[in-house]
Amino acid sequence: NGDLALKSAAQESTKEAAPGWAAPPADRPEEVLDRVRTAYGLTDRETQVLREWLFTDDSQTEIAERMCISVSTLRGHVAALYRKTGVNSRGKLRQVGAARPEDKTAE
Fold first, then answer.
1. Which residue of 36, 63, 72, 95 is surrounded by the most CB atoms within 10 Å?
2. DSSP state, 24?
3. Rounded distance, CA 56 to CA 15, Å?
4. At 69, is the secondary structure helix, strand, or coil?
5. Which segment of 33-37, 93-97, 100-104 scores lowest on mean pLDDT?
6. Which residues contact 25 (CB under 8 A, 6 or more apart)?
7. Rounded to 5 degrees, what angle do the CA atoms 57, 93, 88 make?
8. Do residues 22 and 100 touch, judged by C-beta distance below 8 A?
9. Are 10 and 92 in contact (CB under 8 A)?
10. For residue 71, with 0-12 CB atoms within 10 Å meaning exposed, 13-18 middle and 19 or more buried, which class applies?
């Protein structure tokens, strides 16, 4: 199953804390968002937050203002993203976005 492979690849890529972060392909944001949304069961709003979190380097305040939500609400959505994807940082979430099902290594 491609979704399980994506989850496994993302979890494998986040086990080691590498310096910097692997950027998701910026030329195909919809593909990345659809893949991650499907694999992790994200809501529409979580997917909107994911777009901002992955494809901008804007602060929480800037993102919250653009989305017309409070910073506290944004943090709640980010916490849900982290919980659902099993990561704990923006950089690791970017690695999830950059992971592809074929990136899965043999176990």
1. 36
2. P
3. 24
4. coil
5. 100-104
6. 31, 32, 98
7. 105
8. no
9. no
10. middle
What are the C-alpha distances in Å from 68 to residues 4, 52, 61, 75, 107? Answer: 34, 13, 10, 13, 44
| Residue recorded with tokens 């989305």 | 67
Q: Which residue has the higher pLDDT, 95 or 16?
A: 95
Question: What is the pLDDT at residue 26?
Answer: 60
Residue 70, SS3 per DSSP: coil
- CA dist 30 and 28 (Å) reads 6
User: Encoding tokens for residue 67?
Assistant: 């989305």
And the tokens for 75?
A: 């943090």
Residue 80's Cβ-count burial label (10 Å; 0-12, 13-18, 19+) is middle
